[in-house]
Write a structure and sequence with these properties.
Layout (H helix, E strand, L loop, with lengths): L1 H17 L64 E6 L5 E7 L11 H15 L2 E6 L6 E7 L1 H15 L2 E9 L3 H5 L4 H10 L2 E3 L3 H4 L11 E9 H19 L1 E6 L7 H6 L1 H5 L4 E4 L13 E6 H21 L1 E6 L5 H5 L2 H8 L2 E3 L9 E6 L4 H12 L3 E6 L10 H15 L1 H9 L1 E4 L3 H6 L4 E6 L2 H17 L5 E5 L5 H5 L4 H10 L1 E4 L9 E6 L6 H22 L2 E7 L5 H5 L4 H7 L7 E4 L6 E7 H18 L2 H4 L2 E6 L5 H5 L4 H10 L2 E4 L4 E6 L1 H19 L1 E7 L5 H5 L4 H10 L1 E4 L6 H6 L6 E7 H20 L2 E8 L3 H5 L4 H10 L2 E4 L12 E8 L1 H19 L1 E7 L5 H5 L4 H9 L6 H7 E2 L9 E7 H19 L2 E8 L3 H5 L4 H10 L2 E3 L10 E8 L1 H15 L3 E8 L3 H5 ...
Antiparallel strand pairs: 1-2, 2-4, 3-4, 5-7, 6-7, 8-10, 9-10, 11-13, 12-13, 14-16, 15-16, 17-19, 18-19, 20-22, 21-22, 23-25, 24-25, 26-28, 27-28, 29-31, 30-31, 32-34, 33-34, 35-37, 36-37, 38-41, 39-41, 40-42, 42-44, 43-44
Protein name: KH domain-containing protein C550.14
InterPro entries: KH_dom (IPR004087), KH_dom_type_1 (IPR004088), KH_dom_type_1_sf (IPR036612), KH_Vigilin_N (IPR057778), SCP160-like_KH (IPR054548)
Organism: Taphrina deformans (strain PYCC 5710 / ATCC 11124 / CBS 356.35 / IMI 108563 / JCM 9778 / NBRC 8474)
Length: 1204
C-alpha cells in the first residue's frame, strides 16, 4: 500500500512540475490539504496561444453559417483537448489530474483568490481532495483531484463548469438524424446534457420536419452547443458519434416519378442495380388504398445517390420513348386486371395502372412503346373478360319491408357472420363480394358481385343467394338500438350470452363491428317455425332477454375532467399503451376523448361504474405525470412459476416483447422466476396482471395423450383442419397429431404415431378430449371400406363437373370416397384406377353400385365418325338445334343440351370439315347414325328456290336475334339461306329456300308478304291540337296496337308544349270532404282553360299499313281531333283515394257512364296516395262531370250514382 501511494504522489508531483516556469521558478502552490508542491517549468510543453489550430476562434458573433461536417468539406472546428490523467489506488480511491491552459480559463476580475474559493467549494460539496498549482509565465493551472470515482468525476465537471472558458459550437447534421439525437422522450439528449454539462439546442420540429416520403437525406439542420470548452466538445463528440452511426447508410423515397412508369422501371431493375449493394422497392401500379406511393432506395449513401440519378435518367428516357393511353373498364373487372399486371408487363412491355377500389374512376392507364400499346390493350381486355361476372341487387327482394335498404343490409351482415356465403363460394367455385359494414350504413342499395371461371357456377351461386335472401323475410329480422359501448358487455365472455339466446330462442344476434360506429343490433330468426305468430313470439323473447342484459350492463354517462394538456400524452402513453392499460384496450367499454370541449378537457363516456373507475385512474396518472421521472420509475417484483418462464418469453422473445411494446414497460426475467417490471405505474400493474394470468393459465394446463389409430386421424382433423380448428377455438386448447414419418422411424415409434395430444386448461382439454373420442368411436363404427377398380376414362364422369357428382353421392350415402392414381400410361385405353369407399356397410354398397353403373356406361361408350356433306349440316341441326334434339332424344339419348352436344359434335363454324363425331352408348350411337343417314337421303331429294329481297328489308326476315328466320324455318319445315349483304352490291339480295315444294312456296309467300312495302296516307292535323291528340304518345301506340298502323310526321318538327300556369295541384286543391262555410264543395276543384300550343298551321300524320286498316285508323284520328278541339278546359278535382272505387264502379261502368253523359275525358289516378282526378272537355261538360262524380261519391249506400 505504501509503495503504491508513493508512486501516486511521484506522478502527481511530475504533473505539477510541468505546470511551472523553469527560468523563474515561483512557489505558487496553494496549501490545500497540508501539501506543498514546487513546480519546475518544462519549456518543451509550453503552449503557443496564437496557434489557431490548437485554439480556434470561438463565440457566437460570427454570422457565417458553419459548413456541414457530413459533406465533402472538412470540419471547421477542431477539438480543444484538456490534459487529464487518472490513477487508481489500492484503496478504491482514484486520483485524476486536470490541466487548464490559460486560454481555456474564464477571465476573472477577482483573481486567484476566487479560484481558490471555487476549489474549496468543490472539495466541500464532493468530499474530494483538490490540489492546485498555477504557472506564472504560461498561466496553466493543474488540479490534482483525489476521492471516490463518482465524486472525482463530479468534482472535475464542476471545476470545468466554474473555471473553464464558455464556448458556443454550431454543427450541421442531417435532418433525418434529429430524432436519434433526441431519443425516445428526449432520453438520449438528456443523457448528453447530464454527462457533459453543456446546453444543446435543436431547431423546432415544425421548422424542419416533412412528410416522411419527402425527407431529403441531404437536408441539414443546425445544432447549437453552449457550455465550458471541454463539456461542449464532449457533447459535440457524442452527437458526431450518433450521426456517424446513422448516416453510414441511408434510405430515400422518390416521389417525382409518376406511378405509370413503375412497371417499366421494374423491367430494368437489374440494370439499375448494376451489382450495387442496394435495395430498390418499386411499388405495384395497382393500389389498394388512396395513399401516396414512392420508389424507395436504401443502402450505402453514395450508392443510393447513384441509383437515384440513374432512376431519374431512365424516367426521362421513358418519357421520350413511351406513350400512355387510358380507357374505361367496368369497375368490377379491375381486380382481374390488377392480378395480371406482371403478366401483361412481361408479355407486352407495357405497364398498367389500376385506380384504387375507393376511387370513382373506372379508367385503366397503359404506358409502353407505341408499337406495343395495341397488344397491351388487347391483353388487358382479355384479362378483364377472363372471368364470368354477375351482380345481384338484393335491396329489392322484400318490397313489404318498411325500409328495403336497411333490411338488405341486415341480411348481408347476418350472412357475413354465419358463413353461408362462404359455403356457396366453395360449392360453386366462385367469389362473392358484398358491401362492407361501413358501405351498408351509407348506401342507397345493396349489390352483391359474383365472379367465377364458369358462367354456370356463377349462375348457380346467384340462385343460391336468391334462395337465402328470399328465406329471410321481414318478419324474421328486427332491429334494436343499443349503445355501442355496451355491446361487449351484452355479448359476454366468448359470446356466452348471445349463444344462450340462439340456443333458447333460435334467434341470432348480430352486433356491428367495433370499427363501425353503429348502435343498431340485428335480431334474425334462424329456427324452423313457419307461422308469423311463432316467429314473432321467439323474436319478442329474444328482445326481452337482451333488455334484461341491458339492465345489468349499467347506464351510459359522460363525464369531463380538467387535466393540463401537457399531461395528455403521458396519460395516453406511447402508442396509447397507458390508456389501454386504464381502459382495457380492445376490450374497453368506455370511450376517452382528449381536448374536447376545451384544450385541457378529457371526456370519458361509457357505463357509469366504468367511467368512475377510468376517471379515477386518469387522475392518478395525471398526478404521477407531474414528475415524469417518478411516474416512469415505478417498479414491482413478483414471482412467476419458473417452469413456465420459456412460455412467458416465447419464441425469440416474442411473447414478452409484445407485452413490453403494448404497455411501454421494462420487464426483466430473473433466476427462478423472479420478475421485475418498471415503468408508469398503471402500465406496470397491467403488465403484472397479464403475466400473472398467463402463469395461472399455464398452471391449470392439462395434457391428454389419446391413443387413436393413425388411419382415423384424417377424419378427426377434417377437411383443411376444419374440425380441429373448431375444437381449438371452442375450448382454447392445442391439439397435435404426429407428423408423417418414414417407414423405419414408424417402426421404431409405432406407439407414438397413434398418439394425439390435447393440451389446454383442464376444463377445456377435458371437453375437447370427449368430443375427439366421440368422433373416433363414430368413425370406427363407420369405417367399413371396400376397394373397387374402374376405368381411368370413367373417373371424369364419376366425379362430375367441379366434383358435383361425387359430392352428391357422398351426401346421399354418407360415405367417404377416395380416388387413387392410375398406375398405367395415359394412352392406355384400359387403364384402371382404384377407388376406396368408407362408411357403414349398407351405405358403402349403395355407393359402390352407383359408381360401377357409371363405369359400365363408360365401358359401353363408343366413338364413331360419320362423313356428312357440310351442305346437310344445317338440315341435321335444324332451327335452334330442334332437329338434332328430336333425333337424339328419339334414339334414347339425353335431352340436356350440354350432354347432347358432347354426344353429337359438328365441325366448328369456319372449319372446313365433313366429319360428324358421335360418342355414347353403342345402342344409342347406332340409332343416331341410322337416323342421320335417313335424313341425308331425304334431303338429297329436296328442292330449292331463290327469291330476291330488297337489301334494306333483309333484316325483317332475320328478325331480332334470328327469331323470325327460325320461326319461318320451323313453321314451313324449310331451310332459309341468306347470304351476307354487300354494302356496295346490288339492291336486291338472293334468299335461297330449301325444302319440299309446298313448304318452299308457302315460305316464299310469307317472305314476300313480310317485305312488302306498306301503303300510306297523310292526314293534316292542326298543330295547336297535335299534343292533345297524341296524348303523350298513347294515341299513336293505340293505332299501332289496334290497327297495326304506324305513324310518322314526315320529318316535321313536333309542336312545343304550351307554357301555362296551372292553377292548384294536389297540395293546393280543396278536397271534396273539406269543410267550407260558403256552401258544399264550392272550392273542391280548379278549372283551367287549355292554352294550346300557340302554333298555327298543320302537321302531317303519315299513316302506314294495310289499306283497310289505314281507313279505320284515319277514322279514329278524325274522331280524336274533333274531341281535342272540344276539350277547351281542364279540371282538377281532389277526391279521397278511398272513394275512387265508387267513381269507377264495377268493371268501370260508373265512370264510362259519366264520360258518355258529360262528353268529357276523365282520368282517375292509379298511384297510391294520389287523390287528384283530371277532367278534360268543354267548360259545361266539366261542370256536368264534376256533379256526376260528387253524386257517385255521396250516394246513400256509400257509393254509386243515384238513379234519375
Amino acid at each position: 500500500m505504501a509503495l503504491a501511494h508513493a508512486a501516486l504522489q511521484q506522478d502527481a508531483l511530475e504533473d505539477l512540475a510541468h505546470a511551472s516556469d523553469d527560468d523563474s521558478s515561483v512557489d505558487t502552490a496553494t496549501n490545500l490539504g497540508n501539501q506543498t508542491v514546487k513546480d519546475k517549468i518544462d519549456r518543451s510543453k509550453e503552449v503557443n496561444l496564437s496557434d489557431e489550430n490548437a485554439f480556434p476562434s470561438l463565440g457566437t458573433g460570427s454570422s457565417t453559417r458553419p459548413a456541414s461536417l457530413w459533406g465533402k468539406m472538412k470540419p471547421s472546428l477542431k477539438p480543444v483537448t484538456v490534459s487529464s490523467s487518472q490513477v487508481v489506488t489500492a484503496s478504491d480511491l482514484v486520483t485524476e489530474t486536470l490541466k487548464l491552459e490559460a486560454a481555456q480559463q474564464q477571465a476573472r476580475s477577482l483573481g486567484r483568490n476566487q479560484t481558490s474559493d471555487v476549489v474549496r467549494d468543490v472539495q466541500k460539496s464532493t468530499g474530494t481532495t483538490v490540489q492546485m498549482s498555477t504557472a506564472q509565465k504560461t498561466g496553466t493551472t493543474v488540479f490534482i483531484i483525489r476521492g471516490k470515482p463518482d465524486a472525482v468525476v463530479l468534482a472535475r465537471r464542476t471545476l470545468l463548469k466554474e473555471l473553464g472558458k464558455k464556448v458556443v459550437l454550431k454543427l450541421l447534421v442531417p435532418s433525418l438524424v434529429r430524432p436519434y439525437i433526441i431519443g425516445s422522450k428526449g432520453r438520449t439528449l438528456k443523457t448528453i446534457i447530464d454527462k457533459t454539462g453543456a446546453k444543446v439546442q435543436l431547431p423546432k420540429r415544425d421548422e424542419t420536419s416533412k412528410v416522411e416520403q419527402e425527407i431529403d437525406p441531404e437536408e441539414l439542420v443546425e445544432i447549437t452547443i453552449e457550455g465550458d470548452f471541454d463539456g461542449a466538445n464532449q457533447a459535440r463528440k457524442e452527437i458526431e458519434a450518433i450521426v456517424a452511426e446513422r448516416t453510414s447508410s441511408t434510405s430515400i423515397k422518390i416521389t417525382s416519378i409518376p406511378s405509370d412508369f413503375y412497371g417499366l422501371l421494374t423491367l430494368r431493375k437489374a440494370e439499375i442495380k448494376a451489382g450495387r449493394d442496394v435495395k430498390i422497392k418499386i411499388p405495384s401500379a395497382s393500389f389498394t388504398e388512396d395513399v401516396p406511393v414512392a420508389i424507395s432506395v436504401s443502402g450505402e449513401k453514395s450508392l443510393v445517390a447513384e441509383v437515384k440519378v440513374q432512376l431519374e435518367s431512365l424516367y426521362e428516357d421513358l418519357q421520350r420513348t413511351t406513350i400512355p393511353t387510358s380507357f374505361p373498364v367496368a369497375k368490377k373487372q379491375h381486380k382481374f386486371i390488377a392480378a395480371s399486371i406482371q403478366d401483361i408487363l412481361t408479355s407486352t412491355g407495357c405497364s398498367v395502372t389500376v385506380p384504387p377500389p375507393s376511387s370513382t374512376s373506372d379508367h385503366i392507364t397503359i404506358r409502353g412503346p407505341g408499337a406495343n400499346i395495341g397488344a397491351g390493350i388487347t391483353l388487358v381486355m382479355e384479362k378483364a373478360n377472363s372471368m364470368a361476372i354477375d351482380s345481384l341487387e338484393i335491396s329489392r327482394a322484400h318490397q313489404s319491408s318498411a325500409n328495403q335498404v336497411h333490411h338488405a343490409a341486415d341480411i348481408s351482415n347476418f350472412l357475413r357472420k354465419t358463413d353461408q356465403l362462404q359455403a356457396l363460394e366453395k360449392n360453386h367455385s366462385v367469389s362473392i363480394s358484398i358491401p362492407s359494414e361501413a358501405q351498408l350504413l351509407s348506401g342507397t342499395k345493396v349489390v352483391y358481385d359474383i365472379t367465377g371461371k364458369s358462367a354456370s357456377g356463377v349462375s348457380e351461386a346467384r340462385a343460391g343467394i336468391i334462395a337465402l335472401v328470399n328465406g329471410l323475410k321481414p318478419e324474421k329480422i328486427q332491429r334494436l338500438t343499443i349503445e355501442p359501448l355496451l355491446h361487449k358487455k351484452i355479448t359476454g365472455p366468448k359470446s356466452k350470452n348471445t349463444i344462450n339466446i340462439r340456443k333458447q330462442h333460435e334467434v341470432e344476434v348480430v352486433f356491428p363491428s367495433p370499427e363501425v360506429d353503429n348502435d343498431q343490433v340485428v335480431l334474425v330468426y334462424s329456427g324452423t317455425a313457419s307461422t308469423p305468430e311463432d316467429i314473432s313470439v321467439a323474436m319478442q323473447q329474444a328482445q326481452n332477454a337482451l333488455k334484461e342484459l341491458l339492465l345489468t350492463a349499467g347506464q351510459i354517462v359522460s363525464e369531463s375532467i380538467v387535466v393540463p394538456s401537457k399531461h395528455h400524452s403521458v396519460i395516453m402513453g406511447k402508442n396509447n399503451t397507458t390508456l389501454n392499460a386504464i381502459t382495457g384496450g380492445s376490450d374497453a367499454t368506455v370511450r376517452v376523448v382528449f381536448g374536447q370541449p376545451k384544450e385541457d378537457s378529457i371526456t370519458v363516456r361509457g357505463p357509469s361504474n366504468d367511467v368512475t373507475r377510468v376517471i379515477k385512474d386518469i387522475r392518478e396518472v395525471a398526478a404521477e405525470a407531474e414528475n415524469s421521472e417518478v411516474a416512469n420509475s415505478f417498479k414491482v417484483e413478483f414471482e412467476f412459476p419458473s417452469q413456465f418462464t420459456k412460455n412467458l418469453i416465447g419464441k425469440g422473445g416474442a411473447n414478452i416483447s409484445k407485452i413490453r411494446d403494448e404497455l411501454g414497460v421494462r420487464i426483466d426475467v430473473g433466476d427462478e422466476g423472479k420478475i421485475t417490471c418498471q415503468g408508469p405505474q398503471r402500465n406496470v400493474e397491467e403488465a403484472k396482471s397479464r403475466i400473472t394470468m398467463l402463469g395461472d393459465r399455464l398452471a391449470d394446463e392439462t395434457t391428454f395423450k389419446l391413443k387413436i389409430p393413425a388411419e382415423f386421424h384424417g377424419q378427426i382433423i377434417g377437411q383443411g383442419g376444419k374440425f380441429v380448428k373448431r375444437l381449438e377455438d371452442k375450448y382454447q386448447v392445442q391439439i397435435n397429431f404426429p407428423k408423417t414419418t418414414n417407414e423405419s422411424a414408424a417402426a421404431e415409434e409405432s406407439s407414438s404415431k397413434n398418439e394425439v395430444t390435447v393440451k389446454g386448461g383442464k376444463k377445456g382439454a377435458t371437453a375437447a378430449k370427449a368430443e375427439i373420442m366421440e368422433l373416433f368411436e363414430y368413425e370406427n363404427e363407420h369405417s367399413h371400406s371396400v376397394t373397387i377398380e374402374v376405368l381411368q376414362k370413367a373417373v371424369s364422369q364419376i366425379v362430375g363437373k367441379s366434383g358435383s357428382a361425387i359430392n352428391e353421392l357422398k351426401d346421399e350415402t354418407h360415405t367417404r370416397i377416395d380416388i387413387g392414381q392410375s398406375v398405367s400410361s395415359d394412352d392406355d385405353a384400359d387403364a384402371l384406377v382404384s377407388i376406396v369407399i368408407t362408411g357403414k356397410k349398407s351405405q358403402v354398397e349403395t355407393a359402390k353400385k352407383s359408381i360401377l353403373e357409371v363405369n359400365s356406361e363408360v365401358a359401353d361408350t363408343v366413338t364413331r365418325t360419320l362423313i356428312v356433306d357440310p351442305a346437310y349440316h344445317r338440315t341435321l341441326i335444324g332451327p335452334g338445334g330442334s332437329n338434332l334434339r328430336d333425333l337424339v332424344v328419339k334414339a334414347g339419348g339425353p335431352d340436356d343440351a350440354s350432354l347432347r352436344a358432347r354426344m353429337v359434335r359438328f365441325p366448328r363454324t369456319g372449319v372446313d370439315s365433313n366429319e360428324v363425331v358421335l360418342k355414347g352408348s353403342k345402342k344409342v350411337v347406332d340409332k343416331i347414325s341410322k337416323a342421320i343417314e335417313k335424313i341425308i337421303g331425304d334431303a338429297s331429294s329436296q328442292h330449292s328456290e331463290v327469291t330476291m329481297v330488297p337489301k334494306e328489308q333483309v333484316r325483317i326476315i332475320i328478325g331480332r336475334g334470328g327469331n323470325k328466320k327460325s320461326e319461318l324455318e320451323s313453321k314451313f319445315s324449310v331451310t332459309i339461306d341468306i347470304p351476307r349483304a354487300d354494302a356496295n352490291g346490288a339492291a336486291d339480295v338472293p334468299v335461297k329456300v330449301l325444302g319440299s315444294e309446298d313448304g318452299i312456296a308457302s315460305a316464299i309467300a310469307e317472305i314476300v308478304k313480310l317485305v312488302k312495302v306498306p301503303e300510306s296516307e297523310t292526314v293534316q292535323v292542326p298543330r295547336k291540337l297535335h299534343r292533345q291528340v297524341a296524348d303523350g304518345g298513347s294515341f299513336i301506340r293505340k293505332l299501332k296496337i289496334d290497327y297495326k298502323v304506324s305513324v310518322d310526321h314526315d320529318g316535321h318538327e313536333i309542336p312545343k308544349a304550351a307554357t301555362k300556369a296551372v292553377q292548384g295541384g294536389q297540395n293546393g286543391i280543396a278536397r271534396i270532404d273539406d269543410d267550407d262555410d260558403e256552401g258544399e264543395h264550392s272550392n273542391a276543384w280548379s278549372v283551367t282553360e287549355v292554352a294550346g300550343s300557340g302554333e298555327s298551321g298543320d302537321i302531317p300524320w303519315v299513316l302506314k299499313g294495310d289499306a283497310a286498316q289505314i281507313a279505320k285508323a284515319k277514322k279514329a284520328l278524325s274522331s280524336a281531333v274533333s274531341q281535342a278541339a272540344s276539350q277547351t278546359h281542364v279540371g282538377h278535382l281532389s277526391v279521397p283515394a278511398a272513394k275512387h272505387r265508387f267513381i269507377i264502379g264495377q268493371g268501370g261502368s260508373t265512370i264510362n257512364a259519366i264520360r258518355t253523359e258529360s262528353g268529357t275525358k276523365i282520368d282517375v289516378p292509379r298511384n297510391q296516395g294520389d287523390e287528384v282526378i283530371v277532367i278534360k272537355g268543354s267548360k259545361e261538360g266539366l261542370e256536368k262531370a264534376k256533379a256526376l262524380i260528387l253524386e257517385a261519391t255521396t250516394a246513400p249506400s256509400g257509393g254509386g250514382r243515384r238513379e234519375h
